[in-house]
Each structure stands twice: as structure tokens, then as C-alpha cells.
Amino acid sequence: MKRVNTYLLGMMLLCGMLVAMIPLGISVHQDRDASITNDLNSSSIADDSVASYQQAGDSPKHYAVVVGISDYKAIGDLQYCDDDAVDWYWYLQNMGYDDIVVLGDNSSFYPKYDGLATEHNAKLALLDMVSKAGPKDTIAFITSGHGSGDSRGSSLLCMWDITAGEDGEDGYFWDVEVAAILALAVADQIFVFIDHCFAGGFGDDLMNMPNSQHVYLAATCDIMGMGWDAGEYSNGMWTYFFLEYTLINIFDSDPHTEMELAFEIAAAAYPFKGGAHHPQEYDGDLDHIFLLW
User: Fold this and answer.
1) How many Cβ atoms are within 10 Å of 23's Cβ, its own excluded?
2) Contacts with 256 (C-beta within 8 Å, 6 or more apart), sequence order
3) Which of 23, 30, 122, 145 has its CA at a distance of 20 to 30 angstroms from the CA of residue 106?
4) Which sequence spans correspond to the domains of the chain?
5) Count of CB atoms within 10 A of residue 123's CB?
6) Tens-binned pLDDT, residue by residue, of the chain (293 aa)
7) Whole-prediction pTM value?
């Protein structure tokens, strides 16, 4: 699935759909798909030599990179991805995370802001996080925005500079590139949360990493599915049901909540009960529970 010859055309496809299929009274939603054309080979993959490992300290540390892009440089905008980033930031901050990097757009308010969510900045932030975390630590990569793919098995995150890249990148952050960076991690726990269209395409790449037994991924949809902005909740729909509805409201922000149980509850409440638009879970170690703390 790694060799890409994309054929998705055009700039942005923003639509509301499937209203009649959605229970809970949810109205028309904007999907997070970006139909685009690009060659995977044009994007550089992180070099192992960039990351340097540090030994774990006496007590585990917790690091996160949080991305939320509502207003893009060159393609159509979304509404609530910045809110997703803000809510995740406060959740992790209140939990006691040692270092949280927040990348976003240039027209939204974030309680902490570390720069534009360009592909270049996102890669640097992930590499820095990976290099800091030792074998007792937890790292998290949480991202919300447009997504796309080649419909043949590869998916990508649309970074802020997609189609108008900066710093030598093109803004297309492919699944293999994310996996190439996270594969360098020696962290005990690697949490990935993706609220983008086609998010399920990241699953096999992360599960095929040599450190996949430490990885847990909660994706908004399968490899051909859509993520959604939900105006009723001022969040991405998957972010709302996983974070707000489940982790915060049901489990009262308990840092020892099992991610597998949270996923089960959130997925059961999610309006799309099956098919491509239903959330997907990828767990690298089915014999042990995964915690964010």
C-alpha cells in the first residue's frame, strides 16, 4: 500500500450528507475530506539520524504534539479543528503532561501556540518529542483537520501549507512519513488520535512499526471514510464523542481511564453505526490496557 500514484482531483470538496442516517438530531455536517493530487515520493521521510534518544528519568514523563487546523493557507477552511486542539490541550494539561506542543493556523485562538501546523513544523515537533521520551514515558500525537488519500491504501494529513508548501515540504503528511518518525520512539506508550478524513489508512502503517506493541490509535473513520465538523458540539464529531462525551463526561477526566473502554463507549454512541464513516481502533498490544497517564 505504500506506493502511491494518486488520482484524486481538484482542490476542496466540502459537503453535508447523510442527514437522514444520523440519529441524535444532528444536522448537516461539513466533512474533512480534501480531494487532491500529489506524488508520495515528492515528500521526504524522516531520517533516523535526526532523532537522538535520551534515557528515562526516575519517573515517567508525558509529552504531546497537538495539531488543530481550521483555517488553511491555500485550501478550503473548516470550523472546529482549532476547538479540538484547544480541548485536547486543556485535557492533557490538567492531567499533568510535562510538555505539550500546539500547532495550528494563524487566525484562531489557542491557549498555547507553538506555530503554524506546516508539514515541516509538525515533523520537527514529532521528532523533538520522540527524542525526549525515554522507555518509561508516554507520547501522544493528536491531530484534527482535513485528510485525503489515494484510495489504494495510503492516507495523508493535510497540513496548513498543503498545495503551497513551506520550508522544503509540500504540506502532504503521508501515513508512511508519520510512521517513519514514530517508529523511532522508545516510549512505553504511543497514543495517536486522528480526526481527519481517511484516518483509518494510518492504522496498518503504525501497526507494522517495530515498536507497534506500544502504539494505540483511535481514528475517526476507515481508509475511505469521512471525519465531520459537528456544529451542535463545536468540535469534530469524533473528538466530541471520544474526548468530551466519554473521557470528560463519563469518566470525569480520570487519567487512569482505559483507552480501549473509552473507544468502545464513544464508538457505540457515534452517529455512524458502521461502514466507512465509523471510528476505527488499532491496538498494538491486546493483552495490556492503554492509559494516557
Assistant:
1) 9
2) 291, 293
3) 30
4) 19-39+59-283
5) 23
6) 222 233 232 323 322 222 222 233 333 357 888 765 444 444 444 444 333 444 544 699 999 999 999 999 999 999 999 999 999 999 999 999 999 999 999 989 999 999 999 999 999 999 999 999 999 999 999 999 999 999 788 999 999 999 999 999 999 999 999 999 999 999 999 999 999 999 999 999 999 999 999 999 999 999 999 999 999 999 999 999 999 999 999 999 999 999 999 999 999 999 999 999 999 999 999 999 999 99
7) 0.86
